[in-house]
Write a structure and sequence with these properties.
The structure is a homodimer. By secondary structure, chain A is an alpha/beta fold. In chain A, about 45% of the residues lie in helices and about 15% in strands.
Chain lengths: ~350, ~350
């Protein structure tokens, strides 16, 4: 699909238009003249397409920086070259973390006059691949992906600017995430503070339990240091809640645990429901701390990811990459998290 | 924005293409010839635009029916005249009812090779109006709206096919909804069955408490018949949960209630949290029964709206209206609801 377009938000058209016009003073022609190359070559550099020698690449880059050239989105929209559309890929909206992340991102993009095209992959690899093709065919300006499935190769091949939430896709695609290692440690320190002795760690998938997973690394490092015994088990997060409940029941009954650490809040809700009628229910902890969970389950001890800040940064970085394709971004942006939920001691 | 387009889902392009070609045998020209009018007139009839006399309207309609003419979406997409895109307007994804409704609708549309453009109005009238303009500018094929705010005039003015969820927009826009009156009665009968004597009815807005609201009508009719005393109060649903919590606290403390009927599940969760530590907590009931609530709050007594069936019907009706603009649909499609949640008696 091809969009050509004038108005992303008709009622704000004037404001929009003025932004576009303002930054149109330096054009791709000026850059080409300055660098002593053709307009087509500059275009290839901007869009990272076709062969460009290192020397030419550097010359064009230097000219763009010197002239402060910005391929402005609004201007390109007015010229019919931009779609002012950003694709958002999330695994599912069932988890309030993702519906909230989408809402925050959408609000940020709306403020900046972008429309959003939401793609829910439902953890189906083929669906995610189809949507990625669809986004390219729709000529979106860029993608924010918070996917969980393994469509890594396709992401690497696309020429579109991408920013990833939480998951590292490749060294070239910047990731924005909460500090999972610190979050894991905070949870484990809470376990220590409450004098728990026998811990079950329940994660969403086997992959999540790998030592490469920072949450697990933070949790287990503290538990080992403090010589607290622990057992791990995985509940595949893509399974229906009723299946997860049965699997959780089995895991819980493996031993008499006085604390159950869950690597996401939804698993924690299932475990709370399963254990609340025991004479001495274990401490159950979650992870993510979306507004929904904070509002409707204020007592749950969990790690709050700063979803608002994460969304703002995802949008800010993506817009930078769209407007300045040559910009060098960090590989990772890690934001602080915090422990929330009612303490036993107050 | 204008889309022209070839592929909605590249991987299924062949299947898609064959559907398109198959139904291209009868064209708008054939209809015009049969009816003895111009192609422009047939187009005006199809798109319900401009003045058409009743007589002409009937002639064209008869010709279309006789020739079995279908302005097929896939064919129009191939010709660059269709966008294969449907706009979905929801107030917010915070309520699991709406995130689930969106996911179900998206899955249905994906199966039928439509892409979706999600618009979250966040209960802001201006945002909803902007999005409605945006959808028109994007040339979406049609709209499914589950909006709550008062943008009625704008909806009436658009020429796009619209199907509404739950809320009646106008007599010309079909509504698909659960049977709110029956649901209200079921809740009240459960109150009767459990011998409750003093009931608080908490609704999302003052408007919801109007006698025109079918849920309230069903509830109060039964309570009056059974001579059970009740009090009503409204918690504006667009307020933050923390504000709603304070307002709920005041309402609950007005009297000693042994049952609190909430007209949505999220309000019920707040009330459950506020009352669970009382020595004799009141019965708290909700409404909507999304999968999320059923999975994570299985004990909540609530009315389950058939979201899957509602979504299928919304999509089916909208696609019918897109493919056969002259089709006469019912003003309302009302689906059965059911009482769910753990009973005191089992």
């Amino acid at each position: 699909m091809i969009f050509h377009s004038s108005t992303a938000l008709p009622t704000e058209a004037e404001k929009y238009l003025s932004i576009g016009v303002e930054s149109m003073s330096i054009t791709i022609k000026d850059v080409a003249a300055k660098a002593g190359v053709s307009v087509a070559t500059v275009s290839r550099v901007i869009n990272s397409k076709g062969y460009i020698s290192d020397q030419t690449n550097q010359k064009v880059k230097a000219a763009m920086i010197e002239l402060n050239y910005k391929p402005n989105i609004a201007a390109r929209t007015l010229q019919g070259k931009s779609t002012a559309t950003i694709g958002i890929i999330v695994p599912s909206l069932e988890n309030p973390l993702y519906s909230e992340l989408f809402e925050c991102i959408e609000k940020e993009l709306y403020k900046r006059h972008f429309q959003t095209l939401l793609c829910t992959s439902n953890n189906q690899i083929q669906k995610e691949k189809n949507y990625l093709s669809l986004l390219e065919a729709n000529r979106v300006e860029g993608i924010i992906s918070s996917s969980h499935s393994k469509v890594l190769e396709e992401y690497k091949e696309t020429a579109l600017p991408i920013i990833s939430f939480d998951r590292k896709i490749s060294s070239k695609i910047p990731t924005v995430r909460g500090d999972n290692y610190a979050g894991g440690k905070m949870i484990a320190l809470e376990i220590v503070k409450r004098h728990k002795k026998n811990v079950l760690i329940l994660s969403g998938s086997k992959e999540d339990l790998s030592p490469g997973n920072d949450r697990i690394k933070g949790i287990t490092q503290v538990l080992k240091e403090k010589r607290i015994s622990f057992t791990t088990a995985a509940l595949p997060f893509e399974r229906a809640p009723i299946v997860k409940k049965e699997l959780a029941k089995k895991a819980i009954n493996m031993d008499t645990f006085d604390a159950i650490i869950c690597t996401d809040d939804l698993t924690a809700l299932i475990v709370c429901d399963l254990t609340k009628k025991l004479t001495t229910p274990p401490l159950v902890t979650g992870y993510d701390g979306s507004s929904f969970i904070r509002a409707y389950h204020p007592e749950l001890v969990t790690i709050e990811q700063p979803i608002q800040e994460i969304s703002e940064l995802l949008v800010e970085l993506l817009v930078q990459k769209v407007e300045h394709p040559l910009i060098e971004l960090e590989a990772e942006y890690v934001l602080a998290v915090k422990l929330v939920g009612k303490s036993e001691f107050n």
